[in-house]
Design goal:
Length: 183
C-alpha cells in the first residue's frame, strides 16, 4: 500500500521542517481554514518510478504524548509537476475524486478523515512534505461555517470598510469561535 521513502533525520530534514512549518503556520488561508492549535513536524517523502501510496485515511492520533489529533492534512509539493509523471494526490470528496499535482511551494489542505491516495509515479521523482494540523475547532462542518463567515466579513470590509454589516459578521464569527473552539 505505502511505497515511498521518508527523509532520514538530520540537518537538511530539520531545515525543511522548519521552512514548511513556518509557511503553514503563517499562511492566512491555512489559519482561516484550519484554525491551527498545533502543527505536526512535517514528514518529507520521495516517490520514484513505480512508487505511490494506496487509498487510506490518515491516523486519527499522530506522534507521542501528547498525541496530535489529525483534523486537517497538508501536502506541500516540493518539486514542479513537469519533473515527474503520475504522482497525483487524489482525495475522495462528496463531489467525487479530486486530483492535485501542483507547482513547488503550493499546498493542498484536506480533512484528515477523507480517503486519499497517491497515484504511482511513472517517471522522475515526486517530492512532498506532509503534515497534519490539530484544529482549535474539531468538527469539519463547524470549521467550514467559520471559514465562510471569515471570507464574508473580509469581503464586506474590503467593499465597505467598518460597517454595521461587518460588525454583525465579525460578532457572529467571534461568538461561534468562542462557542466551538477548544483552546
Amino acid at each position: 500500500m505505502k511505497s515511498n521513502e521518508q527523509a532520514k533525520p538530520g540537518p537538511a530534514l530539520e531545515r525543511i521542517r522548519g521552512l514548511v512549518t513556518a509557511a503553514v503556520e503563517k499562511n492566512e488561508i491555512v489559519r482561516a481554514m484550519a484554525l491551527p492549535r498545533r502543527v505536526f513536524p512535517p514528514l518529507v517523502s520521495r516517490s520514484r518510478t513505480g512508487q505511490g501510496y494506496g487509498t487510506h485515511t490518515d491516523d486519527a492520533l499522530i506522534g507521542g504524548r501528547p498525541a496530535l489529533r489529525s483534523d486537517v492534512s497538508v501536502t506541500v509539493f516540493l518539486c514542479d509537476p513537469e519533473t515527474y509523471g503520475g504522482g497525483e494526490l487524489v482525495v475522495e470528496t462528496l463531489a467525487g475524486e479530486e486530483a492535485a499535482k501542483l507547482k513547488a511551494g503550493d499546498a493542498v489542505l484536506y480533512p484528515s478523515t477523507t480517503l486519499h491516495r497517491v497515484e504511482p509515479v511513472t517517471y522522475g521523482m515526486r517530492l512532498v512534505a506532509v503534515t497534519w494540523v490539530e484544529s482549535m475547532v474539531r468538527d469539519a462542518g463547524r470549521r467550514e461555517i467559520l471559514f465562510d463567515l471569515d471570507r464574508a466579513r473580509r469581503a464586506v470590509f474590503e467593499r465597505e470598510g467598518k460597517s454595521a454589516t461587518f460588525d454583525l459578521l465579525a460578532k457572529s464569527y467571534s461568538n461561534l469561535l468562542r462557542r466551538w473552539a477548544e483552546a
